[in-house]
Design a protein that fits this description.
There is one protein chain. About 35% of the residues lie in helices and about 30% in strands. It has about 140 residues and is of the alpha+beta class. Strands 1, 2, 3, 4, 5 and 6 form a six-stranded antiparallel β-sheet that branches. Strand 4 and strand 5 form a beta hairpin. Helix 2 crosses helix 3 (about 40-50). The termini are far apart.
Length: about 140
């Protein structure tokens, strides 16, 4: 009986583990495949509607154009805004870094601070940026 309780607790912990870097990369790549198969407009609609396929709480997909305008985000107040000159809590212009990365090698990681939708607190975040055509998909994890 005791062994079953331990297994149940461990299984529960694994099921609720915080997303890892591999999860962010996988979500961005899944989004890229979706864009190629269904088009950018459908991906925008899915992201903005918080489709659970692309929004899993603290791990979600966002989309930015190559000039820095947010064109899809689960936080709809950010849509249509160019926030390149708005720094994080430490003064880092992380969105400029994301756009430069997308316009350069086309993929990679950016570290910064951002409000975690699950905790409501500003926390360290690491986002994977992946260029697909004329947009960049972004999927990040909070570092604990």
């Amino acid at each position: 009986m005791r062994a079953w309780i331990i297994i149940a607790v461990l299984t529960s912990c694994v099921a609720h583990a915080a997303p890892a870097e591999k999860d962010a990369v996988a979500l961005a790549e899944k989004g890229a495949q979706f864009v190629r198969a269904h088009g950018k407009a459908e991906m925008i609609a899915r992201i903005n509607s918080k489709d659970p396929e692309f929004n899993q709480g603290a791990l979600y997909l966002a989309m930015r154009d190559m000039q820095g305008i947010t064109i899809a985000h689960p936080t709809t107040a950010l849509i249509g805004k160019n926030l390149l000159d708005v720094p994080d809590a430490d003064g880092k212009l992380f969105r400029q870094e994301m756009v430069a990365l997308a316009n350069g090698v086309g993929h990679g990681w950016v570290d910064y601070k951002f409000r975690n939708p699950e905790t409501g607190r500003v926390e360290a975040k690491r986002t994977y940026v992946l260029r697909v055509g004329d947009v960049a998909l972004e999927a990040g994890i909070y570092k604990h």
